[in-house]
Structures are given as structure tokens and as C-alpha cells.
Amino acid sequence: MTTQTTPSTHPLVRLEGICKSFGPVKANQDISLDIHPGRILALLGENGAGKSTLMNMLSGRFKPNAGTIHVDGTPCEFNSSKDAIDAGVGMVYQHFMLVNSMTVTQNVLLGQEDSFILHPKQMQRRVGELAKQFNLRIDPAALVADLSMGERQRVEILKLLMRDSRVLIFDEPTAVLTPTETPQLFDAMREMTRQGKAVVFISHKMEEIMDIADDVAILRRGRIVDSMKKTDITSTEELASRMVGREVILEIEKAPAPKGKAVLEIDGLSGNGLKDISLTLTRGEIVAIVGVAGNGQKALVQTVTGQRAPESGSVRLLGKEWKNFYTRTPWKNTISYIPEDRLGLGTCPELDLIDNVLLTTRQAFAPGLFLDKKRAFGAVKSIIRRYHVQPPIPEIRARQLSGGNLQKLVLGREFFRQPKIIVAEQPSQGLDISATEEVWHRLLNARMKSGVLLITGDLNEAFQLADRVAVMFEGRFMDVFDMSDTAKVDRIGQMMAGMQ
Q1: Whole-model pTM?
Q2: Chunked in runs of 10, what are the mean pLDDT values of the chain (500 residues)?
Q3: What values do phi and psi take at 284, rounded to 5?
Q4: How far apart are CA 310 and CA 175, in angstroms?
Q5: Could you identify which of 19, 206, 267, 330 might form a hypothetical disulfide with 236, taking C-beta atoms 3.0 to 4.6 angstroms apart as the criterion?
Q6: How are strands ordered across the β-sheet holding 198-202?
């Protein structure tokens, strides 16, 4: 039986006067914050507000330029993530750091000083008992390569719990979970607080914060502008308004769009993990592909965007077979791809914002041999202004932007091209509520002249934007249906888990 720990009035972690700059960009300015044992602190703010930077300092990845981190009342200086873990502070990142060829147990105990003296069955039993203690359903003997994204996240959590972490930081943890897995994660987080641990929860989803948080702290432009108990907040609308400083209503009015010709036709596509995929996308509609990450969405996107040739079946874009479209037509002017991996695929981190915009728009500014630099610079400044990219400095490198601001730059660049096909992969992931609202409006406007293939794990996003939905599981479509079919809409969560 679990013993419940009474939350302490003394903070487990205290941040005092924390400052951090990257060149001219001030990411955090004079931040002071208390994190209490036995409580869940929700940290929220708009993109570029400084949330991830602040938590990266607490978890040892960055060093502050000024200020002090106290753990149990003792000043600490973290020079690495190991220093933070040794002090009891760990972070579960959005991108997992696991060895796919190893088992759950081997990943959890990797690097543990005493793991080499344990028998494999003892190690499995030890990991299994820990998982059960915190309501984390996982098979200790399973290979990581065979796990769903939600199960892999549990392995990352177990790695921290095995190292006796007392402060656990979760960065957008529900982005990779199904609707049924999110409550399971929240149960585990509540169990952590019952056992006296402190949890920091970074999220842009207001409903989740209202469900799970005890305390809330809001960052804006690198400063804490508001902090409160969750019980002092009356609604998600009030919380959203406090975050952005104005009223935000994520209810999109979807004007009817004239249906045009088919822009994408997929018939019997198989191979590369795909199984008999068929779909038609027309101009004037948004088709959402929903499903837990790792169920074939990536292979489908790579095929549609020309990164991988179809093994079997037919793919036609704008009436042309895949090979003819990508080898014999100026396809760059007709299809835009907004990748999930905005840093690795969407941008070049070491290039400035001007060159990153020119990666896919150069032809618009170089009709002949020479680039019209003045026009290009003006267009980049316009994109930065219209999409509220912060900081608004065209000359800074892409890696200096927060994830959300980098996504806004990619979106602005791809919409600038006015393509006939848009493939948008998790377009609002990591965006704050205000930026999400703007992206949704732009996708709906784009569908007036384009066909939009939307790949998303956010069901609310699919509900708000899609005309039709395809539910993907283990490389196949469980079903493709119109959003007016309420009986099927109500069963999306079950279909995402493989149930017909």
C-alpha cells in the first residue's frame, strides 16, 4: 500500500534571480520560482516565453548567466544533466533517448553503477516493481523497438525514478500519447506527488492543466508574470487569457470551401510498413490523418513528399504519377511540406532566418542567375512580422529560436509559396494557444486554393479543421470518414488503439 506524503510548506527547489541570454536574445530575466514537494506545478507561456530554457537550466543542460538554484535549501551549480540527476532533478524530454535494440530493463538500468552485479531476472523484477509502484504499465522484458511511443515515455520516466529523482520535469508529455494513455500518465504523476515528489508539467493544453495541476506559473517574454493555485482559476478560458493577455477562443468557424479537382490520389499503397493505403485529397478540403506516433504516418508522409518511392500501389500528384511528378515537373512550386522535425528537416540550424526562408522560396527571388536580395530580405521581414516570430531579427541563426517560433517561421515560409498541395505534419505541436489559433485560421484559408493533408495526434485539431478523417494504426487505415459521421467520430480513440 502506498503511503501518502503530506505536501511540505518548504520548497524542494527554489530558483532565485535566474537570467539567461543567447547573444542578443534574453531568454530568462530575473526569474524566481518555488517548486514544492507533493504538488504539480504547471509551467505555461507563449512560444519563446522561456519555459524550456528555464527547465533546461534546472535539469543541468544550460548554465544560468546569473541567479541561484537551491535544492533542499542548498545552493547548487549544475554543470551537466548528471549533476542535476545526482541532486534529484530529472527531465523527460519530448525526444526520447533510448536504445531500441535493448530491453526496457536494460534501458532503465543503463549507466547504473550497481546494475552489473544483478542477475537479469533480478533486474527485471526490480524494474517491474518500480513500474507497478507508480502505475506505469510496461513489460520489463520487452524490446524498446517494439514499444509504442507512450510505452517508451514510461521507460524514460522509470529511468528517472530508478535514480531516485525527487523533481520530475515533463516537457509536453501528452504530445505522443493516445486519448486513453493521457489519463494513465496523469495517474502516475499523481502517484509521484503522493509519494512526496515534485512534478513540473509544461503544456499548452489548457484542459490538461486544469485537470492535473496544483499550482500554475505563467511566463511572458522571459519573466514570471503570474502565479497562482489552480483552485483560483475558474475556467480554461480564464487561464488562456492570463497566458496571452487577451481573450482567446479556440473555436474555429469553418467556412465552406468550393471542392475542386483531386490533387492527391493514393491507391493500394503498400510497403515500407504501409498496408493497402487508399485515399483521395481534393482542392478545397482538409483530410486529417490521426493516430499514435509510429503507426506508419512517417512512411506515408515520406512517400507523398517525394522522400521515398512507393514500393507497391499508385500515388498520383496533380494528375501525374509519383515518378513523373518528382522527376519531370517543377514540383517545388506546387507542394509544400511542413515537417514535424522542424530543426532537422524544416530548417538548417546554423543558417540565419533569411537563408532558412530561401531554402524553399529562392526561385521566387531569383528569376535569372542572380538573387534579388532586397526583395528576399523584405519578404523575410514580412513573414517574421505576420507570424509574430520572436525575436524579430532576420540575421540570427535558426537554432537561437524556441521550438514554437521556429515552427512559425517554417509555416510562414511554406504558406508564402501558395502551393496546390500542403502536407502539414503536427503543425501546432509545441505552439501556444494564440499561435495555434493563427495557424488553424491559415490552414483553413489555404484550403480554399489547396488540398491539405494534415497529420496530427491532437484530436481537437482534427475536429476543428478536418473535413474528413483517416485513422491510422499499424500502417493501415482503420477507417476514412466524413466529420459529419458522429458515430465514427466518437470512436476515434478506440480506432487509434486498433479496435474496430
Answers
A1: 0.71
A2: 54 95 86 96 86 92 95 94 94 86 92 66 91 93 86 94 95 79 93 96 89 94 91 86 71 77 96 94 95 87 93 94 83 82 85 93 82 91 90 88 83 90 88 80 90 90 92 93 83 79
A3: 95, 10
A4: 29
A5: 206
A6: 89-92, 167-171, 198-202, 40-45, 215-220, 223-229
